[in-house]
């Protein structure tokens, strides 16, 4: 395939405004970079916040949004012959790739926490005036930087699901790793029934939890949670009181509370509730609140007196992308994961996709830049 000169992209130029369709110059491939034709980008809740300007201090339009991307290799820069686990790469291969971590800072090399890299370059966040311009998924083509780890997507996984796994599922995989996994027959409470909560539900079920209790709304999402492995759901619309929800969880756990509580709700009140729902000596994983700066209050001694382990997680790096795809490959015939995916939009309708997600009309819209 010959390398085209430009790529059409839906560009965020001003917050809360329709995206602008632009032709962006495709830069020359530097060694170890990859040019991909974007096959699918899924829309993340983060994209909605970004479009509204909630991260205005972190981003500078014009931006090509979209960080959940699956692409097909158009051209490989010199030196890039394999993916990160040693599979040969060729033109036409379907790939997923990580953010570009610098591999040359304290967090990359000493703390071994690349997601905290101070010089990381994240897809969907960078000004498209700067090289290499094509750093987002709302675009016909994207540029995979030399620092990005790359993995070939297994044939059995549809691109839309693989794209969705590149954010919410890889973060859940990272979170489960950070809390040390789920013990056999643990009771796991998942707060939230958006993509992160749903993936956490399925992962907890597959990890051998005795019961998985998913708390959230609306009821259609809780139905999906049941199909994805929840043994019990609690609808926050019909049980609006945290005290009533706690009573239900206590009933289901012989008065002890959950062994593990996974916060995937993104609502500040979920954190004090998680501390109430977890048993003494239990574990709390805070995943959905990453972008939230709202103060919440907790009894100062509760983490010590309940002997809790409270762990945070953000994003992920290569092992989590890789394991997320493996999890999908192993389980996509067992659970109806495809029900996560809602409507498909062209680049011209990118703003409609964002608005539809903002209005909670759909769970995971898809942008197909080739439409
Ligand atoms: Zn995301
Ligand atoms: Zn670094």
Please characterize this protein's 3D structure.
The protein is globular. Helix 3 crosses helix 4. 27% of the residues lie in helices and 23% in strands. The two termini are 19 Å apart. With 371 residues, the protein is of the alpha/beta class. It has 2 domains: 6-156 and 332-367, Medium-chain alcohol dehydrogenases, catalytic domain (Quinone Oxidoreductase, Chain A, domain 1, Alpha-Beta Complex), CATH 3.90.180.10; 171-312, Rossmann fold (3-Layer(aba) Sandwich). The structure holds zinc ion (2 copies).
Q: Which distinct ligands sit in these coordinates? A: zinc ion
| Tally of structural domains | 2
DSSP strand count: 16
CATH superfamily of the largest domain: Medium-chain alcohol dehydrogenases, catalytic domain
The Rg value, from CA coordinates, equals: 21 Å
H/E element string? EEEHEEEHEEHEHEHEHEHEHEHEHE
Task: Give the gist of this structure.
With 371 residues, the chain is α/β, with parallel strands linked by helices. It has ten helices and 16 strands. Residues 44, 46, 67-68, 167 line the site of one zinc ion.
Explain the layout of strands and helices.
Elements: E1 6-12, E2 20-25, E3 34-42, H1 45-52, E4 63-64, E5 68-76, E6 94-97, H2 106-109, E7 141-144, E8 150-152, H3 159-178, E9 187-191, H4 195-206, E10 211-216, H5 219-227, E11 232-235, H6 242-252, E12 258-263, H7 270-277, E13 278-286, H8 302-305, E14 309-312, H9 318-331, E15 341-345, H10 350-358, E16 364-367
Parallel strand pairs: 9-10, 9-12, 10-11, 12-13, 13-14, 15-16
Antiparallel strand pairs: 1-2, 1-4, 3-5, 3-7, 3-16, 5-6, 6-8
Helix pairs in contact: 1-10, 3-4, 3-9
Bound molecules: zinc ion (2 copies).
